[in-house]
Design goal:
Number of strands: 0
Helix content: over 70%
Number of domains: 1
Shape: elongated
Structural class: mainly alpha
Distance between the termini: 13 Å
Largest sheet: none
């Protein structure tokens, strides 16, 4: 049975997931362009190597936290279990994409150090696609969770 407390918890979860998405957007859009505008090439390369590693680590940790919370809550919610499992599966896929992107960072740096522009370009594009996929999955999950907010649509039990 639905309780107002569950609505507050779901709204809090949606808010935190939205903040996670905002951090991803800020981290991929604003920070690198600002670094390239304000630092010379040597300093920007050194800064971005450390930044991208920590950015990807934070992306994985955030994905894991959201997946674990959704997994623990899946059986204790008024949302149908199939829908809750879909959200957990999408969160898991989002986390896996983030982890694969994290594993690419040392390979991208090694290709750049070797001067292998073809390998660097391929790996960098793969990383961009994976991070974009993480953001798209996050948006999809946000939409799915907002759809089932209590009182919004049809999933919630009604009194006879």
């Amino acid at each position: 049975m639905y309780h107002l407390t569950e609505a507050y918890l779901l709204a809090s979860y949606i808010t935190l997931l939205g903040a996670y998405f905002g951090a991803l957007l800020l981290g991929t859009g604003l920070v690198p362009s600002l670094v390239f505008q304000t630092l010379d090439e040597a300093n920007s390369a050194r800064f971005l190597r450390a930044y991208w590693l920590r950015f990807h680590q934070a992306m994985v940790i955030g994905g894991l936290v959201f997946t674990i919370i959704a997994s623990l809550a899946a059986g204790a919610t008024a949302i149908p279990i199939q829908y809750a499992l879909l959200v957990v599966a999408l969160l898991g896929l989002m986390t896996i994409c983030a982890y694969i992107a994290l594993r690419l960072i040392p390979q991208i740096n090694a290709a750049r150090d070797r001067g292998d522009e073809a390998a660097f370009s391929t790996l960098h594009r793969a990383d961009i696609v994976l991070v974009a996929l993480v953001m798209l999955l996050c948006l999809g999950i946000l939409a799915a969770l907002i759809y089932v907010l209590p009182g919004q649509f049809t999933f919630w039990p009604t009194a006879a």
